[in-house]
Design brief:
Length: about 575
């Protein structure tokens, strides 16, 4: 190259010359500066000295093929400097031809440093596709990642789990300690999630306190359950944020591809639906989306309309399940349970129709119908000299209405001959703590009318001493999921023992649900729980059968013998 042109190039660009074998025969000062090598180290060295390893093999094969044919090649190359750092250059590779023969004599490379531009573009691209707070992929990038994962799963015929995770208790952190504390909590949650997933899995932040997990190579449902239990465990571990110990939990909805063979948007929607079910079921748990069930959900409007018609057609019925003091062998009350006498299907249990109406105002109409019917039944029993209290379940949507107290007051006034103390309203723990201030205020107002309250599903969600202190229910019900396995599950036994101890400490009555055997009753009596209900004692029955059943009931002799021993 003419010396005056070389000086011009040296002043503006990173310049080098290479022989036909790829050995460096000339470099300028800019080349030495950016590569970190001295001129002595570079001259005679193979150009592969600078290979970053980031480009595929055919990248350089194409480049050498082009310039070997005497053509100019242009492109961006990532090189590795002597200290191991990477830098990007915009390169123009020019073959120098012999003027006489036209053959390639050597190669000249003119480069410009574009590392800063690359970094800026990368930063901008990263910001477009990532959540700035947590560093996780955001909603926009998530759809790309999920599309890629689905394409791979379809091609390789491997399963894929899409999980929607929502934090339970996060709003309380924001409200109680401020958004700065909430943001730090989200950062810690993101960190924990990243640490427990595999490299090929994805953790993304959808919005607010909602996260999405894409779990690849999930071989079966048992492996999926194990993974989700790890997620629940790591999220529920205490957090230390700004010197405060915080507790949040997770509700997780999950759908499994290819059982749920849909596109990315639909899979996320299904996972969201399953997450909502998990939250409504008590929180700190996961729920697997049921594809078959979803086909039924798509007909929700028709289902709700049919249940509303059942209410108008007097097809709904109440059955009553006895509640017994095992120590004395006496019946101490009943729980009213809803049944649907379907004209074609026969008796339909509530689990097959109530879930469809619980998030509509129809559940309020049904709840008030139940209260009316129970008070009518109590009035009839009262005329026979029978004074059994009856417990009824109050749905979240019903109890959280601003006018619940006034509506309850009205129904009690319509049945003024019945003592309000015979009406026991049961609210579940997850509903009670969702708006603890409203619930506790409403509860006290209703109790002033004379009605009693029970706290159901205790121990399945966010149980704490502070909740128990603020919710002045007369009764605590031990969930049947604990009672069922107390004979052989040490954890369930410990939880049941703890609930009984808490009830005693707070001066509350305690009732065990789901009694399955004589042995269950014996153990509960030893633990200090005297009142129970369950199929072993009796299944729910029509009101007409109650007096006869009570007259013929006798507690098992083993319970009586235990009473004598105690």
């Amino acid at each position: 190259m003419d010396e005056k042109y070389r000086r011009a190039v040296d002043a503006a660009a990173i310049f080098s010359e290479t022989d036909l074998n790829g050995r460096i025969i000339h470099v300028n000062d800019r080349f030495c500066a950016i590569s970190g090598y001295s001129r002595e180290e570079l001259l005679g060295a193979d150009h592969r000295l600078l290979n970053s390893g980031l480009h595929p093999g055919d990248f350089f094969a194409t480049m050498w093929r082009t310039i070997a044919l005497g053509k100019v090649w242009k492109g961006e190359i990532c090189n590795r400097a002597k200290d191991g750092s990477l830098y990007w250059v915009d390169s123009t590779m020019v073959p120098v031809l012999d003027e006489v023969t036209g053959r390639v004599m050597r190669y000249v490379s003119i480069r410009f440093d574009v590392s800063e531009k690359r970094q800026l573009l990368h930063s901008l691209e990263w910001r477009v596709g990532h959540d700035v707070l947590t560093g996780l992929p955001n909603r926009a990038f998530l759809f790309d990642l999920l599309d890629q994962a689905l394409t791979f799963s379809r091609a390789e015929d491997v399963p894929l789990a899409v999980c929607m995770l929502d934090l339970d208790g996060f709003k309380a952190v924001n409200d109680g300690y401020g958004h700065a504390c909430g943001d730090l909590l989200l950062v810690e949650v993101a960190k924990r999630l990243r640490e427990i997933v595999r490299g090929e899995d994805v953790v993304a932040r959808l919005a607010g306190d909602e996260f999405v997990l894409i779990l690849r190579y999930v071989s079966d449902v048992s492996e999926l359950r194990a993974a989700l239990n790890r997620v629940l465990g790591v999220i529920s571990a205490p957090y230390s944020i700004l010197g405060k110990e915080l507790h949040v939990y997770a509700s997780v909805g999950v759908t499994l591809f290819p059982v749920d063979n849909e596109d990315a948007e639909t899979l996320l929607r299904h996972a969201d639906q399953a997450m909502y079910v998990a939250k409504q079921s008590g929180r700190n748990r996961f729920h697997l989306f049921d594809v078959v069930h979803d086909r039924e959900v798509k007909a929700t409007y028709q289902t709700v309309a049919r249940v509303r018609q059942a209410l108008l057609n007097h097809e709904l019925r109440l059955h009553f399940q006895p509640r017994v003091n095992m120590r004395s062998g006496t019946v101490v009350g009943f729980e009213a349970l809803l049944r649907w006498e379907h004209p074609e299907r026969g008796v339909v249990p509530p689990r097959e129709f109530l879930p469809w109406v619980e998030e509509t105002d129809l559940i309020v109409d049904i709840g008030e119908w139940v209260m009316e019917q129970v008070l009518v039944q109590l009035s009839q029993w009262q005329r026979l000299g029978l004074q059994w209290p009856v417990s009824i379940n109050i749905a979240a949507r019903h109890f959280q209405r601003a006018d619940f107290f006034e509506r309850l007051k009205g129904v009690l006034q319509r049945h003024a001959s019945v003592s309000p103390r015979l009406l026991d309203l049961e609210i579940v723990e997850s509903v009670a703590i969702e708006n603890i201030q409203h619930v506790s205020t409403c509860l006290r107002a209703c109790q002033a009318l004379g009605v009693r309250f029970s706290l159901g599903d205790f121990g399945t969600g966010h149980s704490s001493l502070s909740y128990l202190k603020r919710l002045h229910t007369q009764t605590i019900k031990i969930d049947k999921s604990f009672v069922r396995d107390i004979l052989h599950d040490r954890d369930d036994l410990a939880l049941t023992t703890a609930v009984i101890g808490l009830a005693r400490a707070f001066g509350r009555e305690v009732v065990a649900e789901g009694l399955h055997s004589v042995e269950h009753g014996q153990l509960l009596l030893r633990l200090g729980c005297e009142v129970a209900q369950g199929y072993f004692i009796a299944r729910p029955m029509p009101a007409s059968e109650v007096p006869g059943w009570v007259a013929g009931f006798a507690a098992p002799i083993q319970w009586q013998a235990l009473d004598q021993v105690v």
